[in-house]
From TrEMBL:
Biological processes per GO annotation: fatty acid beta-oxidation using acyl-CoA dehydrogenase
Keyword terms: FAD, Flavoprotein, Oxidoreductase
PANTHER family (alphabetical): ACYL-COA DEHYDROGENASE FAMILY MEMBER 11 (PTHR48083:SF13), MEDIUM-CHAIN SPECIFIC ACYL-COA DEHYDROGENASE, MITOCHONDRIAL-RELATED (PTHR48083)
Gene Ontology molecular function: any one: acyl-CoA dehydrogenase activity
Cofactor: FAD
Top-level taxon in the UniProt lineage: Bacteria
Assembly and oligomerization: Homodimer.
Residue ranges of domain Acyl-CoA dehydrogenase/oxidase N-terminal in the record: 13-128
Name of the featured protein: Acyl-CoA dehydrogenase-like protein
First and last residue of the signal peptide: none
InterPro entries for this protein: Acyl-CoA_dehydrogenase, Acyl-CoA_Oxase/DH_mid-dom, Acyl-CoA_Oxase/DH_mid-dom_sf, AcylCo_DH-like_C, AcylCo_DH/oxidase_C, AcylCoA_DH/ox_N, AcylCoA_DH/ox_N_sf, AcylCoA_DH/oxidase_NM_dom_sf
Family: Belongs to the acyl-CoA dehydrogenase family.
């Protein structure tokens, strides 16, 4: 297995391979032993997370996929794959390595004003600010642009924002939120009525309404409200009323970054399966010799290997500025499927221990189930992908998988 990994990694730069090994060691030796305490939540877990984050900084492993101009160390998304999957081996790594804010760092650098760079981007990459993203709203199914009712009106150089957002990640610790709001007139086409505006969470009129547990456990999701919140005009990302295009760009990169982490979690489950099968208890139960056990591990390997290759191809498209929504969406679904297969198979092999807190599998299982919803449900991605492929054949007779 190590040889196969090394052969695959040979297509990446030496710097990426080196960072991948360093991150793997840090996760296995520093983060994983602390997982039970981190899972408890509360002030103690938050303090421990801060301590581990500082260790990651000292080890030179913080913000590896931030823009190179802002302390990042990897420019290629394809190269980042082998690093991100190692970061993803623990559900707690994203915050510890700062990778949870890499997407925002790229969006703010590309579309932000000088004031946004100074007030939000620079503090964030320094670890002094935490981002969140408010898109989905209560009382609406999903996050379709036509359903957005949060509004922002410009007057005398300030935006006045009113509305609600929910299932906002990092809601418990965010220092600012990027809000998708309606800024154009209702009679204008929806694609020309939305904008993204940055709102500090200490703004008057901003409120965290509630924390939202996910499958019985708090994962940082929350609901927030905006009541006559005012921010400067320059807090808008990009041009006025181009929020739909920014949303598409954000989703493309965000889906692949999540997918990379999910593949890492799937690999963690795969390793746990191997340990269980060859453990004393596994040998006493003759697990290595049972056909269905072999099927579990073979199916898991196939799912992980397939997802990694699909992500790599989709990432290369973004690197060369030729993104394919079909490839990105399929890669995201494949990573989700790999994690679901891996976590379910691992739980099955561990039996009662797998659904308890005696292993990390119960927490991973929660994430696996949410992966089929986050950043686009399976159903919406399948529908979109199918439509695009059917439309392709209106113009062409042959699809080239090049």
């Amino acid at each position: 297995m190590l040889q196969a990994y090394q052969e695959q990694a040979s297509s990446h730069t030496e710097a990426a391979r080196s960072l991948s090994c360093e991150v793997r060691k840090f996760v296995d030796k520093v983060i994983i032993p602390c997982e039970p305490r981190l899972a408890e939540g509360g002030d103690s877990a938050a303090q421990l997370q801060s301590e581990l984050t500082e260790k990651a900084r000292r080890a030179g492993l913080w913000g590896l996929f931030y823009p190179l101009s802002h302390s990042g160390k990897i420019a290629s998304l394809e190269d980042y794959l082998i690093v991100a999957e190692q970061e993803g081996r623990s559900e707690f790594s994203s915050a510890i390595f700062g990778s949870h804010s890499a997407l925002d760092a790229h969006m703010l650098l590309k579309f932000g004003s000088d004031e946004i760079h100074r007030n939000f981007l620079e503090p964030m990459v320094a670890g002094e600010a935490t981002p969140s993203y408010g898109m989905t709203e209560p009382d609406h199914g999903g996050s379709f642009p036509t359903l957005i009712t949060t509004s922002a009106h410009l007057s005398h150089g300030n935006w006045t924002i009113n509305g609600r957002k929910w299932f906002v990640g990092n809601a418990d610790r965010a220092t600012f939120v990027t809000v998708l709001a309606r800024t154009g007139k209702e009679e204008i086409h929806t694609r020309q009525t939305l904008s993204m505006i940055l709102v500090p969470t200490n703004s008057p009129g901003f409120s965290i309404e509630r924390q939202i547990p996910i499958l019985g456990r708090f994962l940082g999701q929350g609901e927030m409200s905006f009541t006559d919140v005012q921010v400067p005009e320059y807090n808008r990302l990009g041009k006025n009323d181009n929020g739909t295009e920014l949303m598409s760009q954000r989703l493309r990169l965000g889906r692949l970054l999540r997918a990379m982490n999910w593949v890492g979690l799937a690999q963690r489950c795969f390793d746990l399966m191997g340990m269980r099968i060859n453990s004393r208890r596994g040998l006493s139960a003759r697990l290595p010799y049972k056909q269905l056990v072999r099927q579990h591990i073979a199916n898991t390997y196939q799912a992980i290997a397939s997802a990694r290759e699909l992500i790599r191809v989709a990432a290369r498209g973004i690197d060369i500025q030729c993104p394919s929504d079909v490839r990105i969406n399929v890669a995201k679904m494949a990573a989700s499927q790999a994690l679901c297969i891996a976590s379910d198979s691992a739980v099955q092999l561990y039996g009662a221990e797998g659904i308890s807190d005696l292993t990390p599998l119960s927490g991973i299982y929660r994430i696996a189930r949410t992966s089929r919803i986050l950043d686009g449900t399976d159903e919406s991605l399948i529908s979109s992908t199918g439509r695009r492929l059917i439309d392709f054949f209106k113009e062409e007779d042959v699809y080239h998988f090049g």
